[in-house]
Amino acid sequence: MKLAVIAALVSSAAAFAPNAQPAAQTALNAETDRRAFFGAAAAFGAAALPIAANAKVDYENVAYLGGSQIIDLNNANVRSYLRIQGMYPNAAGKIVSHGPYKSVADVYNIPGLSQAEKDVIKKNESRFTVKEPAAEYVIDRINNGLYR
């Protein structure tokens, strides 16, 4: 990275350095010099790029984030609970603001959970699952920036 920064600074400084060529250049010479400079800069830029990282392209549990009947308690957004009657906003808000959960039964240990909320959770307990928390989704559990 330091080498790339130094090379960029040197090439920028070289662009403003006085040239040893005569001042009366033809338009053709100026064009070829410009092409040679940018061609060399492009080649250097391509060589300076780091090797592509092995990024996680697909999340295998994406269906549990709200796209199926089963909801992942550790990664799903608060809006995933809209389709379950009685869950949104109170019980859903408490679920996403606590955790991570090791099992579905851990949900009943949330402080401040009313008996009515526990009953709704118990009624829909088969619709919940617990997957390993993924940082890409945990960060957006409370507010994913989607508004009506």
CA-based gyration radius: 29 Å
Any idea of the CATH class of the largest domain?
A: Mainly Alpha
CATH architecture of the largest domain: Orthogonal Bundle
Averaging pLDDT over every residue, what do you get?
Answer: 79
Cross-sheet strand order for the largest sheet: 1-2
> Level of helix content?
25-40%
Could you give the distance between the termini? 43 Å
Task: Provide the number of structural domains.
Answer: 2
- Tell me the number of helical segments per DSSP (H or I, 4 or more residues long): 5
Q: What is the fourth-level CATH superfamily of the largest domain?
A: Photosystem II 12 kDa extrinsic protein
Shape call: rod-shaped
- What's the oligomerization state? single chain
Q: Which structural category fits the helices and strands?
A: mainly alpha
Along the chain, the helix and strand elements come as HHEHHEH
Low-confidence stretches: none
Beta fraction: under 5%
DSSP summary, beta strand count: 2
- CATH topology term of the largest domain: DNA polymerase, domain 1
Largest sheet: 2 strands, parallel
Protein name: Photosystem II 12 kDa extrinsic protein
Signal peptide: 1-15
Subcellular location: Membrane
Keywords: Membrane, Signal, Thylakoid
Keywords:
DNA polymerase, domain 1, single chain, 148 residues, 2 domains, 5 helices
Overview of the molecule:
The chain has 148 residues and is mostly helical. It folds into two domains: 1-14 and 27-55, no CATH class; 62-138, Orthogonal Bundle (DNA polymerase, domain 1). It contains five helices and two strands; from the N terminus they run ααβααβα. It has helices spanning 2-16, 27-48, 90-97, 115-123, 135-138; strands spanning 71-72, 128-129. The protein has a two-stranded parallel ribbon. The radius of gyration is 29 Å and the shape is rod-shaped. The two termini are 43 Å apart. The model has no long low-confidence stretch (mean pLDDT 79). Keywords: Membrane, Signal, Thylakoid. InterPro entries: PSII_PsbU. Its main location: membrane. It comes from Cyclotella atomus.
